[in-house]
Amino acid sequence: MMLALNLNAKVNEPQAVMPVPSEKQIRLQDMEMYAFIHYSLNTYTNQEWGYGNEDPALFNPAKLDARQWARTCKNAGMKGIIFTAKHHCGFCMWPSEYTDYSVKSSPWKDGKGDVVRELADACREEGLKFAVYLSPWDRNHPEYGRAEYVTYFHNQLEELLTNYGEIFEVWFDGANGGNGWYGGANETRQIDRKTYYRWKDLFPRILEWQPECCIWNDGSEPGDLRWVGTEAGYVGETNWSLMKSSGERNRNMLHFGVENGDVWVPGETNTSIRPGWFYHDSENGRVKSLAQLMKTYYRSVGRNSTLLLNFPVNKDGLIPQEDSIRAAAFYKMVKETFKQNLIKGAKISASNVRGGSRTYSAKKVADGKQKTYWATDDSVKSASITIELKSPTRVNRFLVSEYIPLGQRVKKFSLEAMTDGKWIELKDDFTENPDMTMSTIGRKRIICFPTIEAEKIRLNIIDAKACPLISEIGLYLAPEIDTEARESTEKKSSAYRISFKKTGGVAESMFIDLGGAKEVCGLRFLPHQKNREGTPLDYIVYGRTSDGSWKEVAKGEFSNIINNPIWQDIAFETGIFNMIRLDCNRISSGKRMAYDDVEVVTPKR
Ligand code: FUL
Question: DSSP label at 183?
Answer without folding.
Answer: G
